[in-house]
Amino acid sequence: MKNKWFHPKKHTGWRKTQKASTRRFRLLDSTDKRKSMHNRYLEAGRKAQALANVTEDSETKRKAKSDAEYFFDKLR
């Protein structure tokens, strides 16, 4: 059994089999509602980027990186 060292603080419900719009909605919905939209986009992008950095599955990595880029592009 592998020792899993990545423990997210909050589970988002993100699945690689979902449509992109659903994945992104779940990421944004899991952020702190008291923050501004700018900070929520940043938080959602960082969550997706963290997943992309630790996964060994190439499809998950590609989709999580795509979702992270979506949120980071919204900040520009």
Walkthrough of the structure:
The structure is a single chain. The chain is mainly α. It has helices spanning 20-29, 37-54, 58-75. The chain has one domain (20-75). Helix 2 runs antiparallel to helix 3. It starts with 19 loop residues before the first helix and ends with a helix. 20% of the residues are buried.
What is the first-to-last residue Cα distance? 42 Å
The helix/strand order is HHH
Low-confidence stretches: none
Relative helix content: 55-70%
**Sheet/helix structural class:** mainly alpha
Shape: globular
Number of helices: 3
The rounded Rg comes to 12 Å
The structural domain count equals 1
Instruction: Report the major sheet.
Output: none
Give the beta-strand count. 0
Q: Approximately what portion of the residues adopt beta-strand conformation?
A: under 5%
Q: Average pLDDT, to the nearest integer?
A: 92
List the topology elements.
Elements: H1 20-29, H2 37-54, H3 58-75
Helix pairs in contact: 2-3
Entry keywords:
76 residues
Question: In summary, what is this structure?
Answer:
The protein contains three helices and no strands. It is mainly alpha-helical and 76 residues long.
